[in-house]
């Protein structure tokens, strides 16, 4: 699965995107945040703010943290959007 | 149902040309509202803004919201152009052009699309301070969420 990051997440993690192999028990967005938080620094630190971090699955904005992520090709993680 | 014209681009846009393109030969349009968002220097504090976006999602989200504006306000057409990259104070960032038979629908359509763009279009702005220090990312404003909820509760 590909994870892509934007804005200060991208800067603080030091990567634009990465391929990850998720454990079988990571089923939902909430699980994904839990998994990211237990990775090495700077992940743990960055994902402490997971309440405000927004998610898009397949370029669709998803609000419900219980949404299943199985089979997703691309998940984006980013701060609240500031368009316009 | 008219299709929205949505452009995500690095280069500047031409307001008059976009307006003409939207109205075209349709002589039944009685109102065109254009909104242009510009880059501010925040009282001379900033030398530029850097706009990052999520390619693909930006086009998709804005198109979806623009289609909703057409349906909701019975517009004859709507155009949205959003720039990305480094933008200097005084330069254009975003353009919305809404066309309708009557003015209220055109005003509302443009207002609706702008309110959604602020919080639902995947763009992020980084400040470039004039003093050369490392700039901050512009944070989301509660006022923008409030503006959006106004449309959702109607």
Task: Give a brief description.
The complex is a heterodimer of chains A (84) and B (154). Chain A is built from three helices and five strands; from the N terminus they run E-H-E-H-H-E-E-E.
Q: Enumerate how many helices of chain A there are, as a single number.
A: 3
* Averaged pLDDT of chain A: 96
Q: The biggest beta sheet of chain B, please?
A: 4 strands, mixed
Percentage of residues in DSSP E strands of chain B: 25-35%
- CATH-defined architecture of chain B: Alpha-Beta Complex
The ordered H/E elements of chain B are EHEEHEEEHEH
Any idea what the shape of chain A is?
Answer: globular
Strand count, sense and closure of the main sheet of chain A? 5 strands, mixed
Task: From the alpha carbons, calculate the radius of gyration of chain B and give it in angstroms.
Answer: 16 Å
Please trace the helix and strand order of chain A, writing H or E for each element: EHEHHEEE
**Assembly classification:** heterodimer
What descriptive keywords fit this protein?
heterodimer; A: 84 residues; alpha+beta; Ubiquitin-like (UB roll); 5-stranded mixed sheet; 3 helices; 5 strands; 23% strand; globular; B: 154 residues; Aldehyde Oxidoreductase, domain 3; 4-stranded mixed sheet; 3-stranded antiparallel sheet; 4 helices; 7 strands; 36% helix; 31% strand
Task: Describe this protein's structure.
The complex is a heterodimer of chains A (84) and B (154). With 84 residues, chain A is an alpha+beta fold. Chain A has one domain: Ubiquitin-like (UB roll) (Roll). In chain A, 24% of the residues lie in helices and 23% in strands. Chain A contains 3 helices and 5 strands. Chain A has helices at residues 7-13, 29-37, 43-46; strands spanning 2-5, 17-19, 54-57, 60-62, 74-78. The longest helix of chain A has 9 residues, at 29-37. Chain A is globular. By secondary structure, chain B is an alpha+beta fold. Chain B contains 4 helices and 7 strands. Chain B has a 4-stranded mixed sheet with strand order 1-4-6-2, with helices on both faces. Chain B has a 3-stranded antiparallel sheet with strand order 5-3-7, with no helix packed on it. The model of chain B has no long low-confidence stretch (mean pLDDT 96). The chains are: A alpha+beta (84), B alpha+beta (154).
